[in-house]
Write a structure and sequence with these properties.
The protein is of the alpha+beta class. It has eight helices and eleven strands.
Length: 242
């Protein structure tokens, strides 16, 4: 049914059904992130024992089918909510947002992170607290900020952030509108549009003039990556989209 052994599909479905028994208003559905370069204990897990991209996609679809059959609306690429929930209403209104924690109805653009490694969002950019408990504690005890590093946003960062957030939240975007908002030209995205051509050819993106829409939410992270100038070549720093 999903290209997986029936036992695996049954396990995924049973887990999703147990989650529904709690009657949550919202559900966040994430796959396991294998990041042994960040989490050393994960080096004990052989990559050969992990499901491949197609299997992970099938697992996600199996759980999604359970949630949608129970009248939960899919929100973006990895959330679900009851139809009357504010998260679902905000998506219908085009007022959904996404931050480091996932989708949110919060309109604020200022987020203060508390605790080790917490990330904060300010008008100027991002700040992150010390990752080590001792360093964080000592800074607080001295009456200092525990900020370990930060990044100042450029105008181009804000332009690309706007594109990526709306794609993540709405699964569609009018690039001409975004360009006008940021006083940019579509020619600034010539390289990105060329990279998107493979998604057009595969039917993953449906073009309509300057508007593009994703026909399959699970691929939206990969589509957004085209617009991200900060992605590194070589070894990934975070989990891979699949």
């Amino acid at each position: 049914m999903y290209g997986l052994p029936q036992q695996t599909v049954s396990t995924v479905i049973a887990t999703a059904q147990r989650a529904l028994a709690l009657e949550p208003d919202r559900i966040a559905l994430f796959g396991y992130a294998h990041v042994p370069w960040m989490k050393r204990h994960q080096r004990l897990i052989s990559p050969s024992t992990l499901p491949g991209s197609s299997d992970r996609f099938a697992q996600s679809r199996a759980a999604s089918d359970v949630f949608m059959a129970a009248a939960y609306s899919p929100i973006g690429l990895d959330h679900f909510a009851k139809d009357g929930d504010l998260l679902a209403r905000r998506q219908r209104e085009g007022r959904l947002h996404r931050n480091f924690q996932g989708y949110t109805t919060d309109e604020t653009r200022t987020i203060i992170g508390f605790g080790t490694s917490a990330i904060g969002t300010l008008a100027q950019g991002y700040v992150q607290n010390a990752a080590g408990t001792v360093q964080y504690r000592d800074a607080i005890n001295r009456g200092c900020l525990a900020t370990a590093r930060g990044y100042q946003l450029t105008d181009d960062d804000r332009f690309r952030w706007h594109i990526i957030e709306r794609l993540m939240c709405d699964l569609q975007i009018d690039l001409a509108d975004i360009c006008r908002t940021h006083d940019r030209s579509l020619t600034d995205l010539t390289s990105e549009l060329a990279q998107l051509d493979k998604f057009f050819q595969q039917g993953i993106i449906a073009p309509a003039g300057t508007r593009i829409s994703a026909s399959s939410p699970p691929f939206i992270r990969t589509i957004c990556a085209v617009f991200d100038k900060h992605l590194l070549n070589g070894e990934p720093r975070y989990s891979l989209a699949s």
